[in-house]
Specification:
The complex is a heterodimer of chains A (406) and B (442). Chain A is elongated. In chain A, helix 1 crosses helix 7 and helix 10 packs across helix 12. Chain A has 2 domains: 268 residues, Crotonobetainyl-coa:carnitine coa-transferase, domain 1 (Rossmann fold); 91 residues, formyl-coa transferase, domain 3 (2-Layer Sandwich), CATH 3.30.1540. Helix content of chain A is 37%, strand content 14%. Chain B is built from 18 helices and 12 strands. The chains are: A alpha/beta (406), B alpha/beta (442). At the A-B interface, helix 2, helix 6, helix 7, strand 6 and helix 8 of A face helix 1, helix 2, helix 6, helix 7 and helix 8 of B. Strand 6 of chain A pairs antiparallel with strand 12 of chain B.
Amino acid sequence: MPEQALSDIKVIDLTWHIAGPYCTKLLADYGAEVIKVESPSVGDPTRRMGPFFKDDPHLEKSGLFLHLNTNKKGITLNLQTSTGKNILKTLVEDADILVESFRPRVMPSLGLDYQTLEQINPKLLMVSISSFGQTGPYCDFKASEIVEYAMGGEMCSTGIDSREPLKLGGNVVQYQAGTVAAVSTMGALFAARAQGVGQHVDVSIMETQAGSADRRIVYLLGYACAGVLTTRWPPPREAVRMLIMPQGVYPCKDGFVNTLSLPQWWPRYIEAMEMPELTDDPRFQNIFSAEAGMEFDAIWYSWLADHTREELFEKFLKAKIASAPVNSPEDLLKNQHLRERGYFTEIDHPETGKVAYPGAPVNLTETPRQVRHPAPLLGQHNEEILCELLGYTREDLVKLRESGVI
Amino acid sequence: MNKLPLEGVRIVAIPVVFAGPFATMLLADLGAEVILVESIQRFPTITRGYMPRPPQGLVPTTGDTFGGTGGIQTYVDHWAGERPWDRFVMFHALGRNKLSCCIDLTSPEGIDIFKRLIKVSDVFFESNAHGTMEKLGLTYDVLKEVKEDIIYLSMPGLGCSGPHKDCSLFGAQLQALAGHTWLTRYPDLDYTTTQSLLFHSDASAGATAAFAVLCALHYRNRTKKGQFIDLAQLETVVPHLGEAFMDYTMNNRVQEPTGNRHPTMAPHGVYRCRGEDRWVVISVASDGEWQALCRALGNPPWASDEKFSTTTGRLANQDELDKYVEEWTCCHDNYEAMYILQNEGVAAGPVIDQRDAYHDAQLQCRGFFEIVRHREAGTHLYPGMLFKMNKTPLSIRKPPPCLGEHNDYVFKEVMGMSDNEIAELEKEQIIGGDEYLTDFTF
């Protein structure tokens, strides 16, 4: 096995839900030793969120939890107890990084704020991920995926003009916040390694969205520099458009395709559709004409209706037009390109057996992601961490268990 | 005073459009010296404008038919000016803290200069279509000969291997391939209504690429080994949809889009507020939060109906429930609704537009927006840092660079060229800024 990029990094992981665990998953997948700390008997709430393996709502069978916690070791610790706090502090002494995603008042209320932990380990890098940040008038507010997208993202322009704003599918805002948090963590690690500077990184999910290149940043600046606002558009069929060529999602013989156009691509469309007669058609001499676009629609929709997603993908690929089928998760798993890249990863887990997981988000060719172990069972590594690492005896473990510390 | 985390790291970049510029922006924010290698011969379509010199009729103005696309095609003050490439809003949004130099990479002398720059750099970052660097003769193997421990990242939409690697795609198509379009839809309408000005792959690929570069730098710092990083933008989106993907691999279930609703929370959605196109989102995750919602709404009689008292009941009666909730939200301003609901402990927030963001109390209080003065574009408030660091505070240190603005610095100070050599190369237009520009190939 090749060495991994982060194999010299130790992380204490107090995160839960999605954003925090995705941040520490990235660190773990690329080699860091991540010790995930969960509350005894309850664990990370994602253990109780679906989808569940074979629809069995069991703490160890949540697909969401299994996906988010690969390569981590898991211990249980009740941070409300002083013994639990002491164990955590001992772990912090030897850690490079602590990541937490509680609401901002929680760590201080436990006596585990940065100022306290900094005393224990001055080089410690503490990363706090929260909905709105550690400070400011909203810092105690509650949020969820839809709230984050509405307040940080571009919900106002998602959907169509005659309807209400639409949330993006899934929980992508939280995943994205976790990815940005991983960037901040690695960035801060450089200051820690090069200058011996430990510090507190404050990641506000709202700001990871407002500052993100998922175009929000461009739209914000468009307002500041030119006063323009984004709005929801009509669907392509009803829209007044900028070009002859189509832009958006269109129905075809067996589903839907997405295509995009640049002004210089008109000849490529003629080529893909194998309709050379359009070149000299007087109706289509001005590619910026909205009326010509309407005329073209009649040709376009009926041509699409004669072709499958697969055929269209090949035709557009050949003509160098950016286009893609609207895939379901099932189509995605069958995608030939991803299969040949060896993207999908089967991971074995004691409660589910082998299941295909999403693959590595990036291939560091010398130090690739490795699956060293699946997501931990609740408290799976209590003995390894507490006994082997911290020197507790097995009798101690029994007592800690009985007193609800682990 | 501490140094910035990445001070001393030099990144040479040829990024295009969104994801690549976003990644290099994150690295530049952290203190890396990011040098964009640009061109006065070839125009970088979309990155610095849709065309080199748009006729004024194609420069969008407020309220015209393109107005709804926001900053995407916009020039500062709706005026393209003499140097449109320096006034294009999209470039401004992602260009901060970076430097720009111009080298003609289609000439052998240009390639030679580029390699000299690589020799004194740590990272080469490019986000062009697959095959572009190969055509220029600037593959990893070539640059590794020049600098043995170079870190080289390529991020085509579909990566550097596989049958469709040459397929050139943008965010909208990657979103479709990844299954994200599939999951984003009004449940009662078809996919043609999935209109979005925002494509998640740009965000996920950009942030993942920055993370990958940092991992590789960390590894190089302790082993002196560089490496090639193959990032397929599509592959960064799939993990962000992990639970939908695994529902299929575990249960053979193809998840259907739920619109603004949630499988286990109710009420969960967007509700009309007072005013034109004003909305508040609300999500209720537990019975406790339900009771909080009832309190916030003043315990109206309908709220005590038995069928709403449990999650199962609320999920089963959402249409009716949503109507009641909207009767209340309609009487409130969207921010007002947020404060009333949050004060009782309900997750809620306004659907904000760009104007709201600039006035938002939280973003203002945390100093999210920063004042930037730009030579060609004037002074404006720019969106700022994505995270805060207490001992190495980050900020917008430099405005987005004008085309070739840092030629002198790069060629003289970084590469040690003499004035004579520079003058000679400028005469041949192998290097030089837009004062040497005759016309772009487009």
